[in-house]
Design a protein that fits this description.
Elements: H1 3-24, E1 44-48, H2 57-67, E2 71-74, H3 85-97, E3 101-109, H4 115-127, E4 132-136, H5 143-153, E5 156-160, H6 172-179, E6 186-191, H7 192-197, H8 202-209, E7 213-218, E8 220-221, E9 230-231, H9 240-249, E10 255-258, H10 268-284
Parallel strand pairs: 1-2, 1-10, 2-3, 3-4, 4-5, 5-6, 6-7, 7-10
Antiparallel strand pairs: 8-9
Helix pairs in contact: 1-10, 4-5, 8-9
Length: about 290
């Protein structure tokens, strides 16, 4: 396929995606959370709250209603999901009232190989009824202690890969090597952009991580060698459709959470385009949006 044909194809899918997004936008402000995995929803789309890190919780909820997205990967940024238990409870109540499901939290860091410090992270997620902790840069020697709490709390750990700058967790395959003999609730979060920059084939990584893949941070790049080349999903070179096909083939049960890190003061145009494209891809694959 020529470069011109490839661009034309993406333009076509983008146009189809915008139509799909318009059809997906509810006539009312309120909507129900996503239904469980089904034949009509093989890939569940969610949002990483870090996308709206410069906006408060009320604004975040408003944006999510506009987007018709009701699954959130929450982070302790602004007042999205505070660490203080009382404030966290208030945040949980706000999300519940808006019909938003908190399905993951992160990125959460584990700097200490100590029970007390690790327990606070699990209690934080337990209080918000969150089943997946997206873990940032835990030291390998900390993993057995973390595994102990995974068993106690029945909360999964998804270690986040951070690309070529990370000395330990460059790609999801590095994570897989470390956890493959551990409890099956020890797994990974594939950050698509970081994984691609580390030289990983993201589609292959989805197949290889399989049942240990618990979360995806979705983004797109125009150049896999440049961290600064991030664009709206569909405007870059990430093979979105092939990724979705791999997720369906491996019976992935988690969410694909958009983490749009550019234009933090005005992310909505890129966020809208990203969800429109992903929904359009799914419609093009024959699935209802």
């Amino acid at each position: 396929m020529s470069k011109k044909d490839s661009v034309s194809r993406r333009d076509f899918v983008r146009s189809s995606a915008l139509v799909a997004a318009a059809l997906a936008t509810p006539s009312k402000v309120f909507a129900l959370p996503p239904t469980p995995l089904s034949a009509n929803a093989p890939v569940r789309l969610g949002l990483a709250s870090y996308t709206f890190r410069n906006f408060n919780r009320a604004q975040l909820i408003g944006f999510m209603k506009q987007l018709n997205v009701f699954a959130l990967n929450a982070k302790d940024v602004k007042d999205h999901l505070p660490v203080d238990p009382q404030e966290e409870s208030a945040a949980f109540a706000d999300y519940a009232a808006a019909g938003i499901m908190l399905h993951a939290a992160g990125t959460i860091y584990f700097p200490k190989d100590e029970d007390a410090d690790i327990r606070t992270k699990f209690e934080y997620c337990k209080q918000a009824r969150i089943g997946v902790i997206v873990a940032g840069d835990p030291a390998p020697e900390t993993l057995p202690r973390i595994e102990k709490f995974v068993k106690e709390y029945d909360i999964r750990i998804a270690i986040h890969n951070h690309g070529p700058e990370d000395k330990i967790w460059r790609s999801p395959l590095d994570v897989l090597k470390a956890v493959k003999e551990m409890d099956p609730r020890m797994g990974c979060c594939i950050d698509v952009g970081h994984a691609a920059r580390a030289g990983a084939d993201v589609v292959q990584a989805i197949h290889e991580t399989g049942p240990r893949l618990f979360n995806i941070h979705m983004k797109d790049l125009t150049n896999f060698e440049s961290k600064e080349s991030q664009v709206a999903v569909g405007d870059g070179v990430v093979p979105v459709r092939k990724m979705f096909e791999a997720l369906i083939a491996t019976k992935y049960q988690g969410f694909v959470d958009l983490e749009y890190e550019i234009h933090p003061e005005d992310p909505m145009p890129g966020v809208i385009a990203s969800f429109a494209y992903m929904r359009g891809v799914l419609v093009g694959m024959g699935f209802a949006s």
